[in-house]
Amino acid sequence: MSSPNTEHKITWSLVWATLVSCMSTLQFGFHLAVFNAPQAILSCHKSIPGPFPSYEDTFWGHLNLDQCIRMGPTSTAYINTMFTLGGLISSTIVGFRTVNGNFGRKHLQKISAFTFFLGSALISISKNVFCLESGRLLTGFAAGSSMVTAPILVSELTPYNHRGLMGSLLQFGVAIGILFAQLIAFLWSNDQQWRNLFVAGAFLGLLQFALMFTTVESPKWLIMERGDVSGASEILHSVRTNKLATRHEINHYRSLSSVEPSRNSETAHLLKSQGEIASSPFVDTIGADPQPEPATSSFANYVSQAKYRKEWIAVTIIMTAQQLCGMNAITFYGVSVLSNVVPASTNVLILTSSLALTNVVSALAVSPFIDKWGRKPFLLLSVGCMATCSVVISAGLIQQKDAIAALGCFGFVVAYSIGLGQIPFLMVSELSSSEAVGVAQSFGTSLNWMANICVAFMFPILQELLHGWVFFVFFVLGVFYFGAISWYVPETRGKAEYHEIWHGFVS
């Protein structure tokens, strides 16, 4: 008999499902960066002529939409903050059992994709700050929901021996989204065409919505929430290559749902009563868990129960570290930061696009090694190097040395992409027990968005107060997180089960 831990090969069905899910993170990255380049233009603080004789000759001029929307620095900060606020709200809502249990991973991603479309479309036709903020809130809402569901879906579809690679593709999607936003900014960051940037965002949302109909639902969710063993078996056999190991996996999911018959559909109860599940050729009853845990239904239960303490502390550390180490200070405000130090003759968009490209290349280069070398070493290397580069950036800004500041930024981006960028969302599901994975992902993502809000709102204020010294804040935070990860976060590489990860781990 095959062991449940028998390794599987990658299938095309798994690759396709992962790539479609990665469109969620691609859009997250796109909307993180899309306001960076045209910010001064759309707020009427800067004028860059477009290709048409006049604004009235453009498509947007024919719609009687204003060339720009006058706003001050506070309104600009609010627009960025609305994106993160929307993400925080939706990531919290998706954590509720009534939401993630009833809708499923795939359907929630459909809703998120369509919301991306609506939010982007609203921004593209905005006439005032309220419309901009509303559209930004909607895209944030979509991003928050999809950043919870996409990692869970990919994790539940992927065999344990490939989760590092497939999970890293989610961050690769973020990097591609940021790069895409920077590249099209070359074409459309001008007085006449800045609205086209958000039309591109609307197109991405609509495209993913359509493609979600071609992919599959989480087999774990199908069994545990719908009792659909047949459907789950069909999906698992399309994304797994070892049949006996797959039978063990199906049986394990059945055992997790067996103590809570109220969570399953009437169809599942009927199947059980008729003995159809037991007779399924895909199901092996050997090795079933006789005492599955009931599902954790709320943040309060998750953080208050002693048995989850180690995992939620680890989740808190890695998910807040991803934001508070400072990457989105570059993503949100890179143009304004670098424009203060680079020569006037230098095109800052070229520099920020180069940073985005560096993020993509670094993420791609490291992805194959996450399953070989482990998650924790890359996290520690990432945090340590980001802290070091923060000092270099500050030195360049303080001394007005553009080469030093730019070098520090490139090192900062590389350090982020090899660890903190890729690994936290992947590790949440690995660190969490089966009954708590949905709440844990939502809890971690909510904390991530809270930290994102802090960076989005506080960085301009701190920059005004501290000037070039502002990046020393990220140095201090980096040192703190290096110690916290070393002490409280276990390695998850090559460990298929929750007890393997936490057994014997002492913090």
- The rough form would be described as globular
Mean pLDDT: 82
Rg on CA atoms, Å: 23 Å
Helix proportion: 55-70%
Structural class computed from helices and strand pairing? mainly alpha
What is the β-strand count? 0
| CATH superfamily membership of the largest domain | MFS general substrate transporter like domains
Q: What fraction of residues sit in β-strands? A: under 5%
Please tally the helical runs, counting DSSP H or I stretches of 4 or more residues.
23
Question: What's the end-to-end separation, in Å?
Answer: 37 Å
Low-confidence stretches: 258-292
CATH class of the largest domain: Mainly Alpha
Major sheet characteristics: none
Summarize the helix and strand pattern as letters.
HHHHHHHHHHHHHHHHHHHHHHH
Total number of domains:
2
CATH architecture heading of the largest domain:
Up-down Bundle
CATH topology value of the largest domain: Growth Hormone, Chain: A
